[in-house]
Amino acid sequence: MFTYWHQMKPEDIDRLNWLHHDHVKITMLFTYSGIDKKDIEPYPSDVAAESLKLMTAPRERQHRTAL
User: Fold this and answer.
1) What 3-state class would DSSP assign to 41?
2) What DSSP letter does each residue of 15-38 carry, written as one string?
3) 49: three-class secondary structure by DSSP
4) Could you read off the pLDDT of 39-64 as tens digits, one per residue?
5) pTM summary value
6) 5: pLDDT confidence band, cut at 50, 70 and 90?
7) Do 67 and 54 meet the contact criterion of CB atoms below 8 Å apart?
8) What is the pLDDT of residues 16-36, one digit of tens each?
9) Farthest CA pair distance, the chain
């Protein structure tokens, strides 16, 4: 799952766990460039960082995350 243009929200955790019941394995890749120049990196890196923190926080998660 690529989340380049999407900031993950708490309700996304439930949606991803629901997919696990259908035997779908999800791995999310979050990229963080740290580049603040909008002409090079149009989407803020802190969105990826915050989404990664949110999605790795639950103890009972049914998905994997990678940075």
Assistant:
1) coil
2) HHHHHHTTT--EEEE--------T
3) helix
4) 887 777 788 888 888 888 877 776 77
5) 0.64
6) low
7) no
8) 888 777 778 888 887 777 788
9) 41
